[in-house]
Amino acid sequence: MTGRAGATARAGATARRRGPAQAVSLIAKAAAAGLLAGVCAGVCTTILSAQPAAEDTAGQTTEDRAERTANRTFYRDLRPAHWFWNGMDPLVLERILTRIKGADGPREDSAYHDGIAAYGPGNWTYEFERVGDAYMTRGRLQETLNHTHVAAAYYRKAAAAYATAKFPHFAENADQNRAYAKNIDALEAAWTLRGLIFERVTSTFDGQPVDGILMLPALRRGPVPLVLGTNGIDVLKGEFFDMADMLIARGIGFFAFDMAGTGSHAHLRLSPEYERLTRHFMTTLGADTRVDAARLGLIGVSFGGNAVVKLAMQQPAGLKALVNMCGPVHSVFMLDAGAVAGVEAMYRDAFVDRAKLTGASDAEIADALKGFSLVGQGLLGGGRTTPVPIFSVNAAGDYVAPDSDMALVTASTQDGTLIYSGEGDHCPQDRFMVTPVIADWLKDRL
């Protein structure tokens, strides 16, 4: 389906990966606990009153339909906590997932709830995009009334809905591309209404167009330190949200860009040398007179963490500190062909797409993965260390970036910090707690 040596601490509540039914239960509990944001009201009323997508039940018994639905699962990895952090409202999310599960129609794969092929009711992108559109409409109304802060809050929520609508982004999907463009537009509207600087930066890398988003404090005294951030293979540049806000509040600029093979850089192949794109942006932005080129930091989330740790070992000029958030550096890249065959479909498809491995066998995918091991590249292990400070954060027992990977990174820097938030899942589970800690750490190091 292609529509498709340091200090160690534990922080935050534990959480484990959940199936569809458990995810909906979590959403309901979060809503009952009062986690709905104030600006939900109008949109919640509109979305929650909508009926599930119509279903063609001709020739079907209730038992037939129930059995078929019960045997389906979600192609996408459901991440309610992640989407809450981004700004999705729990009740709206619950309603959307219920509509998708109850929808009927031609599917790309009948095994998946979220496999409705045609753009319309029950289609993943359609359901989330319409929520984003509703928030944008309310934001524009508030803006005409000069309620700029309320309008900005609506635009921020629209950006979160659009980010989910395009998940996981595949460049050949026109609907996902449209939702992704709306995600960036909504972010820009929210940011500029608050009087902050939001610029789209374009340049050329290896003869190909590349871009990113530059966000700067409105009030500055001379050049400011800058943090460059990238996510992994299924989360894009328009999803840093609170991280960007907290860095700006501390007088630090932020530049977000898509990893090679993803988002607006889908035309670039994800290869073991993909940190070169980060180097390119460090040089490009370091030439901006508003940026202090001697005080650059990096944030890499998930697959993006691999690249920033690699750069820490290479020590490019100006790099003063970096954050490795749940970045795999060795273990997962050692999977054999048999293990690759068991990888969840969404993740397998995403890696194959980003690495331009369409049609590759399990053995060929396993060989390609090995190239990303920083141990295999001779950069980690064997007593090698870097003076660049590294702050690592993850959930304990992460199956993508296991504790052994995190310990290896921390042992490879002369100034390392490692904290855990939650357990048994990929990436830290309480972003509300760890994000300000990260922002403070970067301010101290930059």
TrEMBL record:
Name of the protein described by the UniProt record? Alpha/beta hydrolase family protein DUF1100
**The keyword Hydrolase appears for this protein:** yes
Could you say which residues form the signal peptide? none
Its Gene Ontology molecular function terms? Answer: hydrolase activity
Q: Which UniProt keywords apply?
A: Hydrolase
Q: Does the keyword Cell inner membrane apply?
A: no
Pfam (any one): FrsA-like
The protein's superkingdom reads: Bacteria
